[in-house]
Amino acid sequence: MAIKQVIVVRKDIRMGIGKSCAQVAHASLAAAEIAMENYRSDYLEWKQTGEKKIVVAGENQEQLGRLFEDARTLNLPCYLVRDAGLTQLKPGTITTLAIGPAPEEKIDKITSHLKLL
Amino acid sequence: MAIKQVIVVRKDIRMGIGKSCAQVAHASLAAAEIAMENYRSDYLEWKQTGEKKIVVAGENQEQLGRLFEDARTLNLPCYLVRDAGLTQLKPGTITTLAIGPAPEEKIDKITSHLKLL
To answer: In this predicted structure, what is the pLDDT of residue A1?
Structure first.
């Protein structure tokens, strides 16, 4: 069973490419650390198989919030990034959500309808 | 002394936003793990102070290679991403370089001339 991580980026807010990349990295790292501590065998398999990461587009803050709750319900490692608001956004703005590393089939249950960014 | 991570992305190759974000996340995570294992106090300070990440533009493969050597010479945690080439790029293409988490002054010695992506 392949292990992957999906990162959802809001497309309804204006962020430069560098800003988007930094937010995705922040989400990815935080969810990976949760997996490293709590889902160790999935985490290790992910590391050993190239750390598959898929970046997809999310509609808005509400959708990311719902996906986060869905991921928690499925007991998947996940992390929601709220921007500190020092540069381009208002403080506390939700920008990205990382789900996994976790088995592909489990993540697909809640993210398979999302399009690649 | 503030701790940050700088991620350099090649701007001379065509990558979609999602692809760029995934490559940056890959570089960021790998360099963070090197720091976690080998530069623990810098890593912990970075975690506790919001994990500052700066994404900048690199000219080409040669420049990223030189920056990587410079970072190693300065004994900074760093990681060069070579793409597996499954989607948009040729296998082995260098796409991104992460330097740090490490003290800002040390990283700035080699990256301060680079512009934000």
So the answer is: 75
Q: β-strands A78-82, A94-103: how paired?
A: antiparallel
pTM, full prediction: 0.94
Torsion angle of C-alpha atoms A84, B23, B81, B45, degrees rounded to 10: 10
Which CATH number do you get for residue A95? 3.40.1490.10
Chains A, B: CB contacts within 8 A come to 80
Q: What is the pLDDT of residues B43-68, one digit of tens each?
A: 999 999 999 999 999 999 999 999 99
- Which residues of B are less than 8 Å from A10 in CB distance? none
Can you give A80-109 as a three-state secondary structure string?
A: EEECCCCCCCCCCCEEEEEEEEEEHHHHHH
Number of domains in chain A: 1
A91 touches chain B (CB under 8 A): no
The range of the structural domain enclosing residue B83 comes to: 3-111
Count of positions (residues) in chain A: 117
Please list, in sequence order, all residues whose beta carbon lies within 8 angstroms of the beta carbon of residue A38, skipping any fewer than 6 positions away. Answer: A77
Query: Residues 50 to 89 of A: which have CB under 8 A from any B CB?
Result: 50-51, 53-56, 84
Q: Note whether residue A117 is domain-resident.
A: no
**Residues A3/A45, Cβ–Cβ less than 8 Å:** yes
Which of A9, A25, A116 has the CB atom closest to B7's CB atom? A25
With CB atoms and an 8 Å threshold, state whether B26 touches A51.
yes
Min Cα separation A58/chain B (Å) = 12
Q: Do A21 and B84 touch (CB under 8 A)?
A: no
